[in-house]
């Protein structure tokens, strides 16, 4: 499992996202993950081996490196990207659950042929009802994770700038020792780049949140002024939760009435215990 | 997520590009990305390890390296390639949006939609006209801008495109002035010139593609001005068909009326 695996998993979510969601996903993969893999990892590759302290004291180098870099930028970014992309899986799970329900409905209504089943798998879910809430939660969690990691970065590496020289006094270094960081300018450039893309992603997430809320309010306003006429896209209407519940209730009633008919025609069956409470 | 994944993403865009666009994409992948991955990365692999300064002063080497190489050539090229290839995704998104609209029309059972099945919509190649033309032209424009900006950044940062053998450094903590030696300067110069040359070829291809698109646009416009009846535009096919149908209906109505009156 690597970044390519994550890409495969999240491409599926892409289909059920809004347009802003798709742009966000492209920005994440191309400007953050790809830049991390092809460029940033090689910049930080020699961060420990080229970290030099002006001393011959054994152990001083390691201790000072550990003191100034509790967790490397690369690992922090990798964690950030993983945590920020995983809320989208909530949406994927919800969509899979809804598709499973649709398939069950098709089986119950007797439309369980391969063509309809494929249609269920391929069509795009409308972001309404409970899926809307799941989607909004995932966007909120993304925002939260982005903000938390940006704050952690700021706490660990104030100012987001990588300095050339750090003065270290940790044991076993004698007195104060000058330690020099490798490629500080290049690291600063990439830190700023990743910060900027992170901010762009935060803005995109906020825009998506606003868009979803506005759409929901607009739909509600339309709903109040025009009660549903039962028309709409084939699946969009068919699979609203009330319609589904109505269908299920209808089927249960039909099953119930056919059972009652059977019992009326064959009263002997009732001897085996009164199964039909409504008779 | 690496260059292979970018190749997969951009391969899809290839179908909706002009011939010059396809050549550009091939040049990008074979002469730039592939050269970067299989050759250039090895040349610059030991750039810091083998950067040697004539001093025993700890930290002097790090500081001098950082002073002369604020950002490595390899990273600059990687960023340049990423930025230059992403405007093509605008075109991919526009095409995907159009396809989605056609699929919606098809599913509604719209009579205007002339496709037999969804597979045909998926495979169809869109003509570069209308709003897609604007998107495509903008993407070429952005590509040009990014190429130019990065070439300028290169020139500005490294004072020309040549890698010197020796650099004199007097940044603290180096004592006085110290001689520092760059590893593989000639090989690096060769690859730098190669990448610059290919970048210039890509700029030329983009300019040619822009000219081609503009020429096609003006030609089409002048044809429309000369022959307003003939509308070869794909998007007006639906209106033409609808007009024909309306004409037929009104003709048949007239005939019926005439028939009744006689």
From TrEMBL, chain A:
One gap junction consists of a cluster of closely packed pairs of transmembrane channels, the connexons, through which materials of low MW diffuse from one cell to a neighboring cell. This is Gap junction protein. Signal peptide: none annotated. Keywords: Cell junction, Cell membrane, Gap junction, Membrane, Transmembrane, Transmembrane helix. Pfam families: Connexin (PF00029). Its main location: other. A connexon is composed of a hexamer of connexins. The chain crosses the membrane at residues 21-40, 77-97, 131-157, 189-214. It is a multi-pass membrane protein. Residues 145-212 form the Connexin cysteine-rich domain. One of its GO terms (molecular function) is gap junction channel activity. PANTHER family: CONNEXIN (PTHR11984), GAP JUNCTION BETA-1 PROTEIN (PTHR11984:SF20). Residues 42-75 form the Connexin N-terminal domain. It is found in: Cell junction, Gap junction; Cell membrane. It comes from the Eukaryota. One of its GO terms (cellular component) is connexin complex. Belongs to the connexin family. Beta-type (group I) subfamily. The keyword Magnesium does not apply. GO terms for biological process: cell-cell signaling. InterPro entries: Connexin, Connexin32, Connexin_CCC, Connexin_CS, Connexin_N, Connexin_N_sf.
From TrEMBL, chain B:
SMART domains: CNX, Connexin_CCC. It is found in: Cell junction, Gap junction; Cell membrane. Residues 42-75 form the Connexin N-terminal domain. The keyword Membrane applies. The keyword Plastid does not apply. It comes from the Eukaryota. InterPro entries: Connexin, Connexin_CCC, Connexin_CS, Connexin_N, Connexin_N_sf. Residues 146-213 form the Connexin cysteine-rich domain. It is a multi-pass membrane protein. Belongs to the connexin family. A connexon is composed of a hexamer of connexins. One gap junction consists of a cluster of closely packed pairs of transmembrane channels, the connexons, through which materials of low MW diffuse from one cell to a neighboring cell. This is Gap junction protein. It comes from Eurystomus gularis. The gene is Gjb6_1.
